[in-house]
Design brief:
heterodimer; A: 131 residues; 3 helical TM bundles of succinate and fumarate reductases; two-stranded antiparallel ribbon; 4 helices; flat; B: 111 residues
Amino acid sequence: MSRRPYVREVPRFTWWLKKKFYTEYMMREATCIAVALYSALLIIGLIRLSEGQAEYTAYLEAMRSPLGLILQLIILAFAVYHTITWFKLAPKGMPPMRFKDEKVQPKAIVAAHYAGWVGVSLVILLFVGLV
Amino acid sequence: MAVHSHKALIWLPFAAGGMLAAFVLPIMIVLTTGFLFPGALSYERAYAFADNWIGKLILLGVILLPMWHAAHRLRITAHDFGIHNDAAVRWACYVLAGVGSVLTVVFLLAI
């Protein structure tokens, strides 16, 4: 009991910069800040929309001002990173699946997610562009 | 006797919100920047979309689910960012998401 246990020093705020794997993990987790920020932008838009045309148009102009665009481009980069990492983890979060007596390969599950992503994005674009 | 846990209540919106965010957020951001179909989010069109129950439900989903996903992830990750007071972090994350939820519902109903 007299010996001091060995405690490895871990820098509290910068430990995740030491290894690429840690940095990628923290980048993945940090995408939630961008997602939360974008939700806030949408809620502000909803409030402006309920207030009237002038208020909503001003909101849209602010979203498309240089500052609004820079902010949204940063959010977009994190959102795409969230998509990539979410799809990468998808096969690990699913129960094992079988198709025609063969195990469905994780690669196939990830590929299906990407195909679905392209499909969903196109459907939304078609709806917005045509309706 | 079964032990009840509130974890399912947290995990369901986390997974659903993460999935929804992965599939629809990038294209939504492209649309709100106005890079594609800049006229699509005009006042008349946005109002018409939010003026019926289907549109309201879609907006409710795309705003609230990713937000609760983010709130839960932020709470869990705060520990890795060096903030270890989970009670305070939990309170801050979920209260913020709760306020966002109330605002969303109130203003969706106001339209």
